[in-house]
Design goal:
This protein is of the alpha/beta class and 141 residues long. The chain is built from 3 helices and 4 strands; from the N terminus they run βαβαββα. A 4-stranded parallel β-sheet has the order 2-1-3-4, covered by helices on one side. α2 packs across α3. It is globular and about 40 Å long.
Length: 141
Amino acid sequence: MSEPRQFRVLFLCVGNSCRSQMAEGFARHRYPDLILPASAGVLPASIVQPETIEVMAEVGISIEEQMPKPIRDVDWKSTDLVVNMSGAGILQMLPGYEGGNLIWPVPDPMGRSLRKYRRVRDQIEGLVDNLALSLRRQQAD
């Protein structure tokens, strides 16, 4: 019997320091058998925001080893699904990309309160969990 299929998912946002890092963290921590996650940014920041690391640690997920990276540094061509969290037209930056595309309208918490980071984290948690349910159905087909 073969191993169940894993899906390569790329989470993209502007700075790759808040939203996409949270999504990658949830996917990596909760669904390692299902999702091979990566994240990148259109204009990557120099660090993952300390607030991002803090609110993820509050739910038991360490993302301290994750770093912001530009789109060009990830293997987007072999990605099954791009999740656009930036609000920008991402696909034009990925010429020849043939995989799936989702848009998640998640507000950027950068520079906001920890309360805002927590709300964004909780929203992303639900979106990643719903994505996993959808991918599990595809995996079963």
